[in-house]
């Protein structure tokens, strides 16, 4: 637990770096490295209190692909990967999709959580992120890294106990359509977990309702992120 005064300092420092990160995204959007130009795409109206992963020294094609655990303590403090993955309530043997995995900030922990009998499919649209993620998980037999198209999840039907969308929904061309397209990939009791900065929650919840999902539970104990779980609402 970080003392409140420490968090305030952290957030103040982070705000300017976060603004810089979004500016970098704007500059690199034209190259597709930080794609968010779809009709429903939106950027936070105010700098949000998240600590961004280091981006300034990274090549442009890696802007907007998230971070790697263990590189920046303040970033890890803001995302709390151990508590986050514990909150997903995973069991050994489960099948998980990590949509928009980026550099795999959560992928390795997901792999550990489902163990050798489970499976993690990590998807992304960014070639450089996919390449680096493949290198990071090369020794893990239960992880598959998969390139997908921006509007197509590329997930097998009836397969996934949990589909994670971590800091990715704002990139999607149409959130509601994308969520609808995820439904066939879920197992009968499967869930979709979505996490992002708290200010990004309202558009996601609206899209989820439009796509026929209900928020079935929520974890409210992360410093700056929401984490909610969706399941399809029963048909008529
Ligand atoms: C901010 S990063 C998040 C990475 C990681 N999930 C995390 O929580 O740190 C967003 C990632 O989503 C990917 N992405 C953007 N649009 C996507 C789409 N339509 N389908 C899959 N991945 C997408 C980007 O390439 C980027 O790697």
What can you see in these coordinates?
The protein is of the alpha/beta class and 236 residues long. The chain folds into two domains: 61 residues, no CATH class; 154 residues, 3-Layer(aba) Sandwich (Rossmann fold), CATH 3.40.50.150. The protein contains seven helices and seven strands, in the order αααβαβαββαβαββ. The chain has a seven-stranded mixed sheet with strand order 3-2-1-4-5-7-6, with helices on both faces. Helix 6 crosses helix 7. The chain is globular. The relative contact order is 0.14. The N terminus is likely disordered. S-adenosylmethionine binds next to strand 2. Keywords: Methyltransferase, Transferase. It holds the Pfam family Methyltransf_12. This is Class I SAM-dependent methyltransferase. GO terms for molecular function: methyltransferase activity.
């Amino acid at each position: 637990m970080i003392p409140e005064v420490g968090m305030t300092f952290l957030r103040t420092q982070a705000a300017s770096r976060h603004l810089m990160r979004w500016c970098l995204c704007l500059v690199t959007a034209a190259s597709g490295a930080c794609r968010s130009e779809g009709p429903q795409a939106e950027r936070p109206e105010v700098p949000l209190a998240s600590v961004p992963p280091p981006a300034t020294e990274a090549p442009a094609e890696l802007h907007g692909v998230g971070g790697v655990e263990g590189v920046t303590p303040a970033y890890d403090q803001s995302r709390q990967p151990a508590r986050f993955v514990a909150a997903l309530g995973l069991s050994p043997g489960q099948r998980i999709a990590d949509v928009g995995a980026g550099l795999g900030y959560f992928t390795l922990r997901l792999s550990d959580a489902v163990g050798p009998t489970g499976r993690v499919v990590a998807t992304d649209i960014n070639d450089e992120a996919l390449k680096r993620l493949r290198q990071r998980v090369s020794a893990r037999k239960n992880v598959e890294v998969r390139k997908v198209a921006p509007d197509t999840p590329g997930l097998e039907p009836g397969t996934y106990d949990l589909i994670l969308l971590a800091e990715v929904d704002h990139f999607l061309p149409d959130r509601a359509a994308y969520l609808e397209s995820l439904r066939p990939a879920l197992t009968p009791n499967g869930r979709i977990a979505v996490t992002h900065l708290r200010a990004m929650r309202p558009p996601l919840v609206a899209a989820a309702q439009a796509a026929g999902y209900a928020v079935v539970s929520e974890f409210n104990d992360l410093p700056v992120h929401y984490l909610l779980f969706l399941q399809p609402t029963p048909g008529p």
